[in-house]
């Protein structure tokens, strides 16, 4: 079954290749989405403090995991992420403890640094100046990493990793790490195939997780003329051949290259459809035809409105990851 298809982390633990993403899954819907996913065979839920829905996800987990429930805690792989205002070493453990309390868990399977750059410390998630631009902190993510390592020692997390770091930043962490990062979570789909970054991760023993694997069509700052991934003819042809949807072709392509993938949905039929990707195999040439759709097109660049224009929000930060080639 789909639940047994896993990637082995450098800790020796296993991470299911397909998970449920929960970014933009609004409260009132996300609890049911998580329950449907677990019923459909998902054994991996991807969360983050900043998504603002961990309390509700916790309710779903409480109803489904543990003694006398449908699943044991150890059957399900749960990830969360440290937010940008919490990079100060003193803030790392309290942030994790808040997430554990919200999710009603005793430990996480994986905890990630959400972005390499920090915002000003405090309780405001997006601290801003009067002109609407963000207030940053220049704390070194290597100091944050050292605090993340302590969580493993305390048994609060089984593994730690990175999100939205580039290849140079990964190597920077590896140069000081006593506990190596296990996972890099980044945007990836056929228009941003991340071939070089995936090779970089493989060389260094990291597993790559793809977020927004279907191109994230529900973003606030969508460009009117942007390419629509799911309308791509190459995918339509393969979908017809295998009697699958274009989304399933994309998810199969990712999992077949060993990339963990976390499609987000709150619709029961789509949640079920997204995991039905382990009953067929794309041929080598077909895999290449999907990879070759790459345009270097990044859908997820945090944007901000300044004077009525959407502009990249964080591009001026010294730790901004997307100025490097990969």
From TrEMBL:
The active site is at 51 (proton donor). Keywords: Cell membrane, Cytoplasm, Membrane, NADP, Oxidoreductase. The record marks 81 as: Lowers pKa of active site Tyr. CDD domains: AKR_AKR1A1-4 (cd19106). It catalyses: S-nitroso-CoA + NADPH + H(+) = sulfinamide-CoA + NADP(+); S-nitrosoglutathione + NADPH + H(+) = S-(hydroxysulfenamide)glutathione + NADP(+); a primary alcohol + NADP(+) = an aldehyde + NADPH + H(+). Residues 18-294 form the NADP-dependent oxidoreductase domain. GO terms for biological process: aldehyde catabolic process; glucose homeostasis. It is found in: Apical cell membrane; Cytoplasm, Cytosol. One of its GO terms (molecular function) is alcohol dehydrogenase (NADP+) activity. GO terms for cellular component: apical plasma membrane; cytosol. Catalyzes the NADPH-dependent reduction of a wide variety of carbonyl-containing compounds to their corresponding alcohols. Displays enzymatic activity towards endogenous metabolites such as aromatic and aliphatic aldehydes, ketones, monosaccharides and bile acids. Acts as an aldehyde-detoxification enzyme. Also acts as an inhibitor of protein S-nitrosylation by mediating degradation of S-nitroso-coenzyme A (S-nitroso-CoA), a cofactor required to S-nitrosylate proteins. Also acts as a S-nitroso-glutathione reductase by catalyzing the NADPH-dependent reduction of S-nitrosoglutathione. Belongs to the aldo/keto reductase family. This is alcohol dehydrogenase (NADP(+)). The lineage of its organism: Eukaryota, Metazoa, Chordata, Craniata, Vertebrata.
